[in-house]
Amino acid sequence: MHVLIIGAVALGPKAACRLKRLVPDARVTMIDQGFRISYGGCGIPYYVSGDVSSADELQVTSFHMLRDPKFFQDAKGVDVLSRTRAERIDRSAKIVQASDLNTGQALQLGYDKLVLATGSRPRRLDLPGEDLPGVFAVSNLEDAEGIRSRIEAGKVGKAVVIGAGFIGLEMAEALTDIWGVETTVVEIANQILPGFIGADLAQMARSHMQEKGVSFRLSAKVLGFAGEERVNRVLLEGEELEADLVIVSAGVIPNSELAMAAGLEVSSKGTIIVNTRMQTSDPDIYAGGNCVQVPNLVTGQPGYYPLGSLANRQGRVIGTNLAGGDAEFPGAVGGFAVRLFEISVAGAGLSLETAKHCGLDAIGVHVVQFDRAHFFPEKELMHLELVVEKTGRVLGVQGLCAGGDGLVGRVGAVAALLSRHPHVSEIGNLEYPYSPPFSSAMDIVNVAGNAAENILAGYSKTLTVSEFATLWEGSRHDFHVLDCRGLANAQPFLEKYPDVWHHIPQDELRARLDEVPRDKRLILFCNAGGRSYEAQITLEQAGITGTRNLQGGLAALRKYGMDI
Amino acid sequence: MHVLIIGAVALGPKAACRLKRLVPDARVTMIDQGFRISYGGCGIPYYVSGDVSSADELQVTSFHMLRDPKFFQDAKGVDVLSRTRAERIDRSAKIVQASDLNTGQALQLGYDKLVLATGSRPRRLDLPGEDLPGVFAVSNLEDAEGIRSRIEAGKVGKAVVIGAGFIGLEMAEALTDIWGVETTVVEIANQILPGFIGADLAQMARSHMQEKGVSFRLSAKVLGFAGEERVNRVLLEGEELEADLVIVSAGVIPNSELAMAAGLEVSSKGTIIVNTRMQTSDPDIYAGGNCVQVPNLVTGQPGYYPLGSLANRQGRVIGTNLAGGDAEFPGAVGGFAVRLFEISVAGAGLSLETAKHCGLDAIGVHVVQFDRAHFFPEKELMHLELVVEKTGRVLGVQGLCAGGDGLVGRVGAVAALLSRHPHVSEIGNLEYPYSPPFSSAMDIVNVAGNAAENILAGYSKTLTVSEFATLWEGSRHDFHVLDCRGLANAQPFLEKYPDVWHHIPQDELRARLDEVPRDKRLILFCNAGGRSYEAQITLEQAGITGTRNLQGGLAALRKYGMDI
Question: Could you give all domains of chain A from N- to C-terminal order, each with its CATH number?
Answer without folding.
Answer: 2-119+253-322 (3.50.50.60), 135-250 (3.50.50.60), 337-456 (3.50.50.60), 462-560 (3.40.250.10)
